[in-house]
């Protein structure tokens, strides 16, 4: 999973990136400090992996991972090449989802690129640039399909769908929030359009505002916009995240307890990413390795096996499956088998979150 962190200059993108990846991206109080995208890979916290490791004592432990990309700050006119616009937009096309960091704090010592803190305006600037880029791409697509339709009528549906979507976004709509049929959505998903990507808004606050979310007028603006778009929203204090990133596990838990939180901003962001993208994890466990694998909700057993190796999917015979809860409650796999809790599943089995699986295959 690849997540792009975007936002206007000086909203806290690189500070947040540093905190969640410990990758040491440059932070500075001027636009375009980040020119080339910084990339950091983060392990997805999973208590199930920790518990299974206690049971199996494996030689290797592998968590699921998320790749975060800190992309250069955007300015108005980016779709026409202003600032680092073209490079910015090209980098966004490569990610699975967008984390849009929005400044929700006032600080006269930190320059705002447009002179004042206004989350609604900031979001509109970036969304407008993404829409303009999509309009340009769709216009070219429509022109191409119009020529194809003359030779083959099978392209009519694609043409009508693209024209419909083009009309909607020309009036300011985001593609992901459009009311499309399943067939239209499948058609438009074949085109790499920016406003079709899932978005999570990060409302970046200072310490005092983060402790009083209900009193933060900027956060309310972000929540309202996210609700209209069916986007996610996560309030974060990037300064807190920087402090947490340098703590031991015990210190982190104590710190979070003191500020009234159960999870860090990173943990909450990861949960929102999985929810927004419709992802779950299945597990494999043994003496050699305990590992989490990320799949889409609704994935069947053979395709899940293919995440491990293409041979597993090609030669799939069956999957021996037990839920995480049943294995842990049994104490070990042998007792679980004696209790009849390990099920043999075929090609039509739909994977569940937390399934522990042994794939049988023959190639």
Which structural class best describes the helix and strand composition?
alpha/beta
Gyration radius (Cα, Å) is: 23 Å
Tell me the distance between the termini: 29 Å
Overall mean pLDDT: 86
Number of DSSP strands?
Answer: 12
Low-confidence runs of at least 5 consecutive residues: 23-35, 78-85
Helix content: 40-55%
Strand content is 15-25%
What overall form do the CA principal axes indicate? flat
The order of strands across the largest sheet is: 2-4-1-5-6-7
N-to-C series of helices and strands: EHEHEEHEHHHEHHEHHHEEHHEHHEE
Largest beta-sheet characterization: 6 strands, mixed
Number of helices: 15
Supply the key terms.
15 helices, alpha/beta, 363 residues, 6-stranded mixed β-sheet, 3-stranded mixed β-sheet, 12 strands
Describe the structure.
The protein is α/β, with parallel strands linked by helices and 363 residues long. 43% of the residues lie in helices and 20% in strands. It has helices at residues 13-21, 47-56, 85-92, 119-151, 156-170, 182-188, 207-210, 217-229, 238-245, 249-258, 265-277, 301-308, 310-314, 324-330, 333-338, and strands at residues 2-6, 38-43, 60-62, 65-70, 97-103, 199-204, 232-236, 279-285, 289-296, 316-323, 343-345, 355-361. Strand 8 and strand 9 (289-296) form a beta hairpin. The protein is flat, with a radius of gyration of 23 Å.
């Amino acid at each position: 999973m690849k997540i792009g962190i975007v936002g206007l200059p000086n909203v806290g993108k690189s500070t947040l990136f540093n905190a969640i990846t410990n990758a040491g991206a440059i932070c500075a109080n001027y636009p375009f400090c980040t020119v080339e995208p910084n990339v950091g890979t983060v392990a997805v916290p999973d208590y199930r992996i920790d518990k299974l490791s206690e049971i199996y004592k494996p030689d290797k432990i592998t968590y699921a991972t998320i790749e975060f990309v800190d992309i250069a700050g955007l300015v108005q006119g980016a779709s026409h090449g202003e600032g680092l616009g073209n490079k910015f937009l090209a980098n966004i096309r490569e990610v699975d989802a967008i984390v849009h960091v929005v400044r929700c704090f006032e600080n006269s010592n930190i320059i705002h690129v447009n002179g004042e803190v206004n989350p609604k305006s900031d979001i509109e600037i970036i969304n407008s640039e993404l829409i303009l880029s999509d309009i340009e791409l769709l216009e070219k697509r429509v022109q191409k399909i119009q020529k194809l339709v003359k030779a083959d009528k099978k392209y009519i549906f694609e043409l009508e769908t693209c024209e419909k979507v083009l009309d909607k976004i020309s009036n300011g709509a985001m593609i992901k929030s459009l009311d499309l049929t399943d067939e239209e959505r499948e058609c438009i998903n074949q085109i790499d359009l920016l406003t079709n990507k899932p978005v999570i808004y990060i409302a970046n606050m200072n310490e005092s505002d983060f402790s009083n979310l209900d009193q933060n007028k900027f956060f309310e603006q972000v929540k309202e916009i996210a609700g209209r778009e069916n986007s996610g929203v996560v309030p974060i204090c990037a300064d807190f995240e920087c402090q947490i990133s340098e703590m031991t596990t015990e210190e982190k838990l104590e710190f979070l307890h003191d500020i009234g939180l159960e999870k860090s901003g990173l943990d909450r962001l990861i949960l929102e990413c999985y929810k927004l993208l419709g992802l779950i994890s299945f597990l494999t466990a043994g003496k050699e390795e305990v590992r989490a694998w990320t799949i889409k909700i609704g994935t069947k057993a053979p395709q899940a096996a293919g995440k491990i190796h293409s041979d597993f999917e090609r030669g799939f015979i069956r999957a021996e499956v037990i839920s995480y809860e049943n294995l842990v409650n049994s104490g070990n796999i042998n007792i679980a088998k004696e209790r009849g809790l390990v099920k043999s599943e075929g090609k039509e089995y739909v994977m569940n979150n937390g399934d522990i699986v042994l794939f049988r295959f023959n190639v």
